[in-house]
Specification:
This protein is α/β, with parallel strands linked by helices. The protein has helices at residues 12-15, 21-31, 35-39, 42-56, 82-96, 134-138, 166-170, 181-187, 235-238, 240-251, 270-280, 295-303, 319-326, 377-389, 391-408, 412-420; strands at residues 71-75, 100-105, 124-128, 151-154, 175-178, 195-197, 223-230, 257-264, 286-289, 307-310, 331-334, 349-351, 353-357, 371-375. The chain folds into two domains: 58-201 and 411-420, 3-Layer(aba) Sandwich (Rossmann fold); 223-408, 3-Layer(aba) Sandwich (Rossmann fold). Helix content is 36%, strand content 16%. Helix 5 links the parallel strand 1 (71-75) and strand 2. The model is unreliable at 4-20 (pLDDT under 50).
Length: 424
């Protein structure tokens, strides 16, 4: 028996049918934008939503069952973002080993469409829903959905410290898996002794590639550096201005070198887009690609590039650099945080950094005392020049990076975690 995969086509009001009255009232307060609620500070609203949901959401038993019959993977499984792709990757790997029992949409209203679902008894639930959102998401399941079930939170976080609001979500899981040792260390205080690093088994899944330089409108004879990110993932954390500065420092306005900025969700963040355009200026060798494209096309863009550049300030894992390495593309990246789960100086171009207080304009990463990286732009520029001038180095780094990423991103850690949790 498998968990239901729901159809996202119904309107929000239909998704409230059969839900607890508490949830309907909560939806009316937040989803419809009650005036008093909206004038409160955003951080206060987030914390209040999590705390209120934690009162009424179904909770698992204090002790998990010793054995579980396979795994239901839950999360933003129909959404084109990092969390959604993470859930799909986990499901594909579990399905290949006969351990998948369903792929369940689970998340916040307005983001994830849900209808009442039937969850097979005796299965474990792997919730790829970050801690602050998990109580709210669980409110949308039947009251007995977690009865007799092991619940595992698969959570990613990008700073060495987690916000205090994450403690509420930890009350709804028996253990936490994190996609990198960096993230696992940050999450460890939430459930001491019950947090482990389980890197995404990205090397176990097919990475379909579609498209060529011609299909993307890119010149065949240029040295192409590509930076890819979602503006919803924090402009400051992804640090695109550093990527632009490094490219300009390396190549100026040279027509033989091209920087491609592949951005998504630009329509939701017009000020971020304005800042990027201002940094680009009138540079003739910087190209902006916006909009969401299918995963094979995104892989195709990576494969069509000579180098992938990520001067992030922090990553919980780093799906784009990991994908690039598995596709044999050399990566120039900040040598700190979650991407170090699959990168090393011998196989990639790691950029030095200094740690500075994490300051996020949107407040998502406003954690007191937390630090993140400020990468050295001139060092990144030197790496870009070196790789542009040495095709043999590019080929060797791409091949070595591919082999190293394959060795680090296999199914071994996932299968070990499942065995220890009694999942078969």
């Amino acid at each position: 028996m498998c968990a239901n995969i729901v159809n996202p086509g119904e309107p929000p009001s239909a998704r409230l049918d059969g839900q607890p009255r508490f949830w309907r009232n909560l939806w009316l307060m937040t989803g419809l934008g009650h005036k008093l609620w909206r004038v409160l500070p955003r951080g206060f609203r987030r914390a209040a939503l999590t705390n209120l949901a934690a009162i009424a959401a179904p909770r698992p038993a204090a002790a998990p069952p010793a054995r579980s019959d396979g795994v239901i993977v839950a999360g933003e499984v129909e959404t084109e973002n990092g969390l959604g792709e993470s859930a799909r990757i986990m499901h594909r790997v579990l399905a290949a080993r006969g351990l998948a029992r369903g792929l369940l949409p689970l998340g916040l209203p307005g983001v994830v469409a849900m209808r009442p679902a039937t969850l097979p008894p005796g299965t474990a639930l792997l919730a790829v829903v970050n801690a602050p959102h998990l109580p709210v998401a669980l409110l949308r399941l039947p009251r007995d959905a977690l009865a007799g079930r092991r619940v595992i939170g698969f959570w990613a976080w990008e700073l060495p410290r987690v916000p205090s609001s994450w403690a509420q979500g930890a009350k709804f899981v028996h253990e936490i898996w994190a996609p990198s040792p960096f993230a696992a260390e940050a999450l460890a205080p939430l459930l001491p002794g019950r947090v482990r690093a389980v890197p995404f088994p990205l090397a176990e899944v097919e990475l379909p590639v579609s498209g060529t330089r011609a299909s993307f409108g890119l010149p065949e004879d240029a040295f192409i550096v590509t930076t890819i990110f979602n503006l919803a993932s924090s402009f400051t954390r992804k640090n695109p201005l550093a990527a632009i500065a490094a490219f300009k420092a390396a190549f100026g306005a040279s027509p033989a070198h091209l920087l491609v900025l592949k951005l998504s969700h630009t329509e939701a963040f017009p000020e971020d887009l304005r800042r990027i355009r201002a940094a680009m200026g009138d540079a003739p060798n910087i190209r902006l690609l916006t909009g969401t494209i299918a995963l094979p096309e995104l892989h195709g863009l990576i494969a069509a590039s000579d180098v992938i550049l990520s001067l992030h300030r922090s990553e919980g894992f780093g799906l784009v650099p990991a994908t690039a390495m598995l596709l044999g593309r050399p990566v120039v990246a900040t040598g700190w945080s979650g991407n170090m789960a699959f990168m090393a100086p011998e196989v990639s171009a790691l950029v030095s950094y200094r740690l500075i207080p994490a300051q996020d304009e949107r407040g998502v990463f406003a954690v007191p005392g937390a630090l993140w990286a400020e990468p050295e732009v001139e060092e990144a520029a030197a790496w870009l020049r070196r790789l542009a001038d040495d095709p043999a180095l590019r080929g060797a780094m791409g091949a070595a990076g591919r082999d190293y990423a394959r060795s680090k991103l296999g199914a071994g850690p996932l299968l070990a975690a499942l065995a220890e949790a009694g999942v078969a």
